Structure to design on (186 residues):
C-alpha cells in the first residue's frame, strides 16, 4: 500500500491478478523485466552475432581465391552479408572502446555523448538496416539456380547464411528493445 509521511513510500503494483509487476519507491520505481531485457540475453545475442560476423569475414577471405558456384542473387546476398558483418564488428569495436573509457566517470558525465558510443550506435543502426534489406533475399538464396546456370550455393552454405542472418536479426531486435539503435544526440 502507498504510505504517507516524511519517509519514502514503498508499494507493489500488479497487472491484473498475477504477481507483482512493479515495485515503486518514491521517488524511484523498479520494474520487473522480461527475458529479452536481461543482460544475459544481450550478451548471448551479441556473442552469437559477432561469432557469425567473424566467420563471414574469414570465410570471404578463404573464398576470395576460389571461383565457387553462386547465382547472381547469392553473390549479391553474400556481399550484403559481408558488409553487414563488417558493420556489426565495427559496432562491437566502438562499444569496446566506450566500455574501456567508463572508468573515468568525469569523462562520461562531462563528455557525453562519447564519440565511441555515437560510432557504436550508428554502426549498429546501419547494420540493422542492412539486416532488414537482407531478409527478402532469403527465399531467393534458397531457391535453386536457373536450369541454364546450373550453379549455386551448396545446402550447407545456405544454412550458414540463414543462421547468420537470424543471429543478426536477433541482436538487432534486442538492441532495438533497449533503445540502442537510436544514435545519441546532444
Amino acid at each position: 500500500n502507498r504510505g504517507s509521511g516524511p519517509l519514502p513510500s514503498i508499494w507493489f503494483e500488479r497487472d491484473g491478478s498475477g504477481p507483482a509487476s512493479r515495485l515503486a519507491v518514491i521517488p524511484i520505481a523498479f520494474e520487473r523485466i522480461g527475458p529479452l531485457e536481461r543482460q544475459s540475453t544481450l550478451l548471448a545475442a551479441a556473442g552469437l552475432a559477432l561469432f557469425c560476423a567473424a566467420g563471414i569475414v574469414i570465410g570471404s577471405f578463404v573464398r576470395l581465391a576460389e571461383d565457387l558456384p553462386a547465382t547472381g542473387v547469392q553473390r549479391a546476398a553474400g556481399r550484403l552479408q559481408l558488409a553487414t558483418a563488417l558493420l556489426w564488428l565495427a559496432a562491437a569495436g566502438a562499444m569496446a572502446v566506450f566500455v574501456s573509457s567508463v572508468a573515468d566517470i568525469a569523462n562520461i558525465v562531462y563528455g557525453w555523448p562519447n564519440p565511441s558510443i555515437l560510432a557504436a550506435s550508428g554502426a549498429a543502426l546501419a547494420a540493422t538496416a542492412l539486416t532488414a534489406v537482407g531478409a527478402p533475399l532469403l527465399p531467393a538464396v534458397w531457391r535453386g539456380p536457373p536450369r541454364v546456370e546450373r550453379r549455386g550455393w551448396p545446402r550447407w552454405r545456405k544454412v550458414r547464411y540463414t543462421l547468420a542472418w537470424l543471429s543478426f536479426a536477433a541482436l538487432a531486435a534486442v538492441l532495438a528493445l533497449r533503445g540502442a539503435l537510436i544514435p545519441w544526440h546532444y
Q: What stands out?
A: The chain has a mean pLDDT of 84.
